[in-house]
Every structure is written in C-alpha cells, then in structure tokens.
Amino acid sequence: MRHGGDILTYRHLFDGRFRDFSSNINPIGMPFGLKDRLLNGIKEITKYPDIQYRNLKSEIAEYLRCNTENVIVGNGAVEIINNLSMMFNRAVVVTPCFAEYIERPKVFGKEVVKLPLDNEFEINVELIKENIREGDLLILGNPNNPTGKRIKDYVLTEIHEAVKEKNAFLILDEAFFEFCPEDYDSIKLFNESENVCIIRAATKFFALPGIRLGYAYTSKAIVEKYNKIVLPWSVNTFADMAAECIFSDEHYITTSKEYIATQREYLLSELRGIENIKVYDTHCNFILIKLLDDNEDDIFDYLAKKGILVRKASSFEGLDKSYIRVAVKDFNDNKYLVNALREYQRWRKQRTTQEV
Amino acid sequence: MRHGGDILTYRHLFDGRFRDFSSNINPIGMPFGLKDRLLNGIKEITKYPDIQYRNLKSEIAEYLRCNTENVIVGNGAVEIINNLSMMFNRAVVVTPCFAEYIERPKVFGKEVVKLPLDNEFEINVELIKENIREGDLLILGNPNNPTGKRIKDYVLTEIHEAVKEKNAFLILDEAFFEFCPEDYDSIKLFNESENVCIIRAATKFFALPGIRLGYAYTSKAIVEKYNKIVLPWSVNTFADMAAECIFSDEHYITTSKEYIATQREYLLSELRGIENIKVYDTHCNFILIKLLDDNEDDIFDYLAKKGILVRKASSFEGLDKSYIRVAVKDFNDNKYLVNALREYQRWRKQRTTQEV
Q: Which 8-state DSSP code applies to residue B311?
C-alpha cells in the first residue's frame, strides 16, 4: 500500500470490527460542534462554494495568526504539494518521506533528488546544503512521515538560510503540526519569507480525512502564482463550512493535544518494553518501529487476525521490509495493540523454539 | 467574472433575496433522498474515502451502463479536464466555450488552438478536420456552454472519425447531458473507442455544485494513465456517499427532466416575445441572448437592482459585450426574469425618447 487507511483492500482479513493503526487520525474524532454545523448546512451544497474562498481564508488566517492574503487552500494538503511542484524545476526530498513528495513532482516530469536521513532518521543539513540548487523545491515533513520527528528550530533556520541563499524554495509539510509539543511555530519563524510555504490540514488533527481540507501560509507572490493554476472550486462546500467551527473549538483543540501527548507517552513506554523491536522517538501521533530479525509481512498478517491494521513501511523510499508504522490511538486500542504485540513475540519465540 | 455563481462578489448590489440566473443548476434542488443519506453518514468523514473508489465507480458504471474499469472520477468535471489536458501535446477548442477548456491546458504550458463556431454557434466540422493534428486533445462541450447546443450524432460521428484518423483524442464535456432531449447517448455511440472521454458530473443536473463530483467514461488505457496522475483522495467522502442514492433516484431524474423541458419551452417562448434581443436555440437549461444595440453592463446593472443576477458573457472567448446567458430556473423565477426584461426594454425606450 502506498498510503495508510486503505481499509477496504484488507477488509477480507478482518472478522467484524477492527482497529486501524495504519492511518494517523486524531482518535477523539471530529470537533464537537461540527456535526451540527454540517447538518444545518446541507442545503448549501446546491450552491457553488465561493470561488475565492473569502470566509474560509479568513477563518484560516485567524487560526494561523497571519494575513488572509498569505493563505492558500486545497483539496487536502496533497493538492497544495501538487500545485507547488509544478512551479519549480526540480524537487529535493529526504527519505524516507511521505510518498507524494516524490510522486507529485514526477507527475509533472520533474527530476526528484532523494537524500537519505541519517541512521537515527535525523536530517543531514550539510547534505541538503551540498545538493540544493537555484530553482529547487525542497520538501520536508515537519514532523516527517513515517519517522515522526519534528525538525529543531535552529536546524530549520539553517536550512532556510541555505534555501534563500540558493534562491530555492522550501515546503514544510506540517500536516501533523498540532500533535507536536509547542516548542516553536514555523509560521512565526519564517514570517515574511519569500521562500517558504508551510502546509497544514484539517485531515489529521481535526480527524477529517473525508472532508479534504488543506491550507497553507506562504508569500503573496506565491499566493498569486498559485491562484493562477489552482482548479476552480477545488475545496468543497462542506470543507468550507467546517472551517467556521473547527478552528475556534478551543476545548476540542486543548483536549486533543493533551490526550495525544498522554497516549503517546503511554504507547512509547509500553512498546519499549517489548522484545525484538526498536521504537523510534516521535513528536506526533505515530510511531515508527524497526523489527529486529523479522519482517513486516509476518507481523502484519498476525495482527490482522487480531483485528489490527498496521502500516507496512517498505513502500516508503529508503525503508526495507523491517519496519512498520503505528498510529497513537485511544487508550483501549493502544492497550490492545501492546498486548497483541506481546503475544506476537511470545508466539514467535515459541515457533523458533519448536523449529530448533 | 470568469464563471457564474459568483454570488458573493455581487452581494452588495442586492437588497435582500435575489435570483441567481448566472449558474445553471437544476432548480428542483438536490435529489430527494440525499439529505438523509448525508445526515446518517456524517461520521464517515473521520475516515479516508476509499482511495480506489470501488463503490463510487460501481454506482457510476451502473448509471452509465458501462464497465467499472472504464470509469474515472474527479473533484468536479474540471479536475478530469485538467488531468487529461496534461496528457496531450496541444488542445483544440471551439469558441465560445467553457473557460476551463482553455485555462487548464494553458496551466501546463500547452498550446491552445481556438476555432470559431459559425454565426449561429454551430460547429464547423471542416475547420476542425483541417486543424486537428496527431496528439491533439479536442475539447467539445456537448451541449456547449454558453451556447446551449448539443452536437448532432452524425456530426459527432464525423468528428470522431477525423480524431481517430489523426490519432488525436476527443473530450466530450457532457456536464449538462441529462437536461437534453434523449436523442442519443454518446457513451453508446462511442462504446469501445480508444480516442474518446465522455465527462459528466453531479454538479448541474443533481444540483450539487458544492459536493464536487465529476466522472467520466473512457478507454481502459486512459483510465490507467489517469490513475497514475490523479491526486489521491481527490473525491471527498460526501461525494462518495452521494453516489449511493442520487443515480438510482428515478423519480427525481424523471421529474427534473420533465420540469426543465417545460420551463425551457416557457422561457424561450416568452423571451422571444421581448424586443431588442435575439434568443438562441438551446437543448439544455440555459439560454444565450444577444443584445441588439445594447451591452451586458447596462442590463446587468438594471437586473441586479431587481434582485436578478445574470451572466455577462463577454468573458467567454469570442463573444463581445452584447451577450448575456441566463439559466432556466423554476416557474416563478423565470416569470420574474421575463417581466424584468420587459420592464427593462420599456425603460430603455423611454430613456431613448427622452434623450431625443
């Protein structure tokens, strides 16, 4: 699978209810007030959404604390990545990363330069500096998917300096921004920069993958270019309406942040007690796991029989079959996963003993 | 305005309620069973839509009476036009036409050849034959927007032969298909053709511009190419769900067709009794009007004061300021428009007399 959340493909493996750890969605569910807003607004789908998305952009600007003129919107974050990919000569990515950083530029026939992360999946800034050229589009996940690591602010500043110096452009894909500790806000960090676009989305944190709402902060020059190529009405009416209540739902936002932080700590600590796996640090709501002397297919099949869907990670450029990625979900699901993994290791041990 | 339905831009002109004749949406409103389906399905937006759109494509295939493997889907018809534009060397269009036939290929740096329709806005087949080359993408509205005319089946067959012979490709944009008399079905006509894509949408006939659902019938080879470039999850969950009830709502479909046919005849006949305008034939739910010795701005401003929004047509390539386009709406709205146009002509006459 190129992406998580592809439940239907694996439906035949499950007997009844199952737990999807392959897609990294806020386990609390959608914002509390959204259902009523959508119920009341259903009739609005018989009209076109505002082709200029005036309300939507103003809600986003308020949430991001920036000017409306610096906002772009898209049919999910991926449409924004897609449209920006068209504008630059060449893409530079660090691997492993979200597959679409590589796919979207390729669709437009652009060269994609893939630089590896180091052994602990940290960014090698020197490697980026050496490889970046004028007109390049550097695409970084912050935090990165599937590794879960947020780039430190001073590292980011150093990368940004290099990008500016070379007259290149930096996309920070911050689809998982709100799940992270509040150490810095990249929008404040790069306020007024002409060389950065910071992409976020309602998809993950607001648990709305089905509504398709991506948005970004960037320079006015890029906004203008973007508006010339973007599809008309690319954001649907429901996404437009959702903005009216999700971004101002402070209770939901605070609750979600606290809950995810607690569950992340719980899951990390429990997973680290399990044999034969290496659990990487993460700043957000998913965890990359290295399988020691094991492969993704065996563990995937075992967990599937227990009603658990995890993400095989070998489809990420730069990872082999010895990795899986799991989402941080609610307490019951997380506990269930931990127990299933413990059982799996016992089962493996037993099997190995029997084989010997 | 490049498109109709841009109500917000003109809101300041209206005092309270107004009638939007600038966007060509089924006046009956959305299909009867849809509201309940969406109400029941709201929680599904916390999951990704099926990345392969298995259900959606199967519902569409049944509606179009074709195989599922021949179906593509998009974020509105315009995304399908956009993605196909990428695949071909050059676009050929007939003007006036929907602005995006020209815009989308231009976004990808493609040359766009514009061939004029004749004085009665009929297609000049010889001109197309002379100009079409290998690798070209010919984009035709059927019926065409803003002229409202459907291409006769034998004309279409002749064009298709020329397209095949030159190894070019034909897009038929049939976004207004269901509003037309049932004289022929182009999907049957071009069954198994490797050189045609027939695009339709839920937007106009099912009155769902806000939900963003376009779909098309084409060859398996093009479906495969398309799936390689299409954005993941480009159709949102609501559009996916809507397909489960709109295409099988025969009562809604029959009622809409009959109602539009009646109102089209009514509006055409009333408009033809009004002085100083020429009313073109139409096969669908909008009417192009030529203003004799007048311009779109004066009539637009007059009607706006009466709470009526019409489409100025000079933004269509090949039309000057002497045209407007109006939608066929419900009886009360249509009558209101007719009366307002009569008053306008009386007012103009009076003004001219006073000036003399």
A: E
Beta bridge partners, A216, equal A72, A199
Contact between B198 and B172 under an 8 Å Cβ cutoff? The reply is: yes
The shortest CB-CB distance from B209 to any of A7, A43, A48 is to A48
Burial class (CB in 10 A: 0-12, 13-18, 19+), A132: buried
Best to test chain B binding among A3, A18, A50, A51 (most B CBs inside 10 Å) = A51
∠ CA B142-B146-B148, nearest 5°, is: 50
Q: Count Cβ atoms below 10 Å from residue B164 Cβ, excluding itself.
A: 16
Q: What is the model's pTM?
A: 0.96
The Cα–Cα gap between B141 and B157 comes to 15
pLDDT tens profile B132-153: 999 999 999 999 999 999 999 9
Residues with Cβ within 8 Å of B273's Cβ and at least 6 positions away in sequence, in order, are none
Residues of chain A with Cβ-Cβ distance to B50 below 8 Å are: 6-8
Task: Suggest the residue from A2, A89, A238, A252 to mutate for an interface test with chain B (most B CBs closer than 10 A).
Answer: A238
Distance CA B330, CA B267 (A): 10
User: What is the token pair recorded at B303?
Assistant: 């009607």
CA A1-A142-A206 angle, 5° bins? 70
Token pair listed for B275: 């002085």
The partner residue sitting opposite B35, judged by closest CB among A20, A42, A210, is A42
Task: Give the closest residue to A76 by CA, choosing from B106, B200, B82, B51.
Answer: B51
Beta-carbon contacts of B352 under 8 Å, excluding residues fewer than 6 positions away, are none
- Rounded Cα gap, residues A167 and A32, in angstroms: 44
Beta bridge partners of B201: B214
Quick one: three-class SS letters along B243-261?
HHHHCCCHHHHHHHHHHHH
Which residue in chain A has the smallest CA separation from B227?
A107
Interface contact B47-A236, CB threshold 8 A: no
**If you write DSSP's letter for every residue of B221-286 in order, what string do you get?**
HHHHHHHHHSPTT-S-HHHHHHHHHHTT-HHHHHHHHHHHHHHHHHHHHHHTTSTTEEE---SSSE
Q: ipTM, 2 decimals?
A: 0.95
Q: How far apart are CA B231 and CA B234, in angstroms?
A: 5
Among B9, B45, B98, the strongest candidate for a mutation testing the A interface, having the largest count of A CBs within 10 A, is: B45
Residue B113 in tokens: 């050849």
CB-CB: which of B8, B42, B229 is closest to A50? B8
Q: Tell me the per-residue pLDDT of A17-36, one tens digit each, with 9 for 90 and over.
A: 789 999 999 999 999 899 99
Tell me the one-letter amino acid at A288: L
> Which among A8, A20, A239 has CB closest to B54?
A8
Q: Find the closest chain A residue to B86 by CA distance.
A: A108
Instruction: Considering only the beta carbons, identify the residue of A78, A211, A236 that sits closest to B210.
Output: A236
pLDDT, tens digit, for every residue of A265-294?
A: 999 999 999 999 999 999 999 999 999 999
CB contact under 8 A, A46 and B210: yes
Q: Please tell me the distance from the alpha carbon of residue B142 to that of residue B151, in angstroms, as a whole number.
A: 6
Which residues of chain A make contact with B208, given a CB cutoff of 8 A? 45-46
Q: What is the pLDDT of residues B272-285, one digit of tens each?
A: 999 999 999 999 99
CB B96 within 8 A of CB B314: no
